[in-house]
Amino acid sequence: AQSVAQPEDQVKVAEGNPLTVKCTYSVSGNPYLFWYVQYPNRGLQFLLKYITGDNLVKGSYGFEAEFNKSQTSFHLKKPSALVSDSALYFCAYNFNKFYFGSGTKLNVKP
Amino acid sequence: DTAVSQTPKYLVTQMGNDKSIKCEQNLGHDTMYWYKQDSKKFLKIMFSYNNKELIINETVPNRFSPKSPDKAHLNLHINSLELGDSAVYFCASSQGVEQYFGPGTRLTVT
Fold it and tell me: Which of the two ends of chain B, N or C, has the fewest CB atoms closer than 10 A to its terminal CB?
C-alpha cells in the first residue's frame, strides 16, 4: 500500500539548534512529496514540495527537505530552530489524491 | 485577501441536528476538497470536486453530502449529526499538485 510515515509523534529541540522532522514514503513511481505546517487553531500551510529535479528543496521560513530515493525519505530540516517554529508538521504525497502522514509535533524551547 | 475561506469557524450543535459548512476559494482553482481532522490530528480526505463534479468520495457515511454550486464553492451538509462527527473540517483547493487549505471549522456535537 502506498503511504507516508512520520515515525516521531514529537520532536523537541532547543532554539538555535538544527532540527529534523522525519518522513519516509512507500510510493510506486515518482512521488510528489510535500511538507505542510499547522499552527494551533489554524489550517495547513504549504512549506515546500518535491516534484522532480534537485533533491534538496528549499521552502518557506528557512525550511528545506532532502529527497533521498535510496532511503525513500523526505526529511524536513532547518539549520537553526526558532520558538515560533513550534507547530504540527505533516508530510504528504500526491498520487491522484493527497495522503497525509500522521503529523509530528515540533516543540522548540527557548 | 483570504484565499480559501470557511464558515462558520466554530459550530456547536446537538446530536440528531442537520448542519452545513460553507467553503469558498478565490484562487480560480478547479478542484476543491473536504478533509476531516480527528482529535488525534489525523487528516483524511472525504471528498473532492473538480469543476463542480464529484471525483473522490471516500468511505464517508451518506449523512455527509457535499454540494458544489460553482467551482469556487464547495459546501458540506451533514444530516443527523453524531458524537463521532466532532472534528475539525478543512476545505482545500488546488490547481496543480499542491493544495491550499482553509482555516478549518471546529464542529462539536453534544
Answer: N
Give the B-side interface with A, CB within 8 Å: 4, 33, 40-45, 48, 56, 90, 92, 97-104
The boundaries of the domain holding residue A15 are: 3-98
Over residues A47-63, the pLDDT tens digits come to 999 988 889 999 999 99
Mean pLDDT of chain A: 92
Answer yes or no: are the C-beta atoms of A107 and A50 closer than 8 Å: no
Binary contact (B56, A97; C-beta < 8 A): yes
Q: Is residue A21 part of a domain?
A: yes
**Residue found under cell 463542480:** B52
In a domain, A105, yes or no: no
Domains of chain B with bracketed CATH:
4-105 (2.60.40.10)
User: How far is CA A2 from each of CA A99, B16, B74, B107, rounded to the nearest angstrom?
Assistant: 9, 36, 28, 30
Separation in Å, CA of B44 to nearest CA in chain A: 7
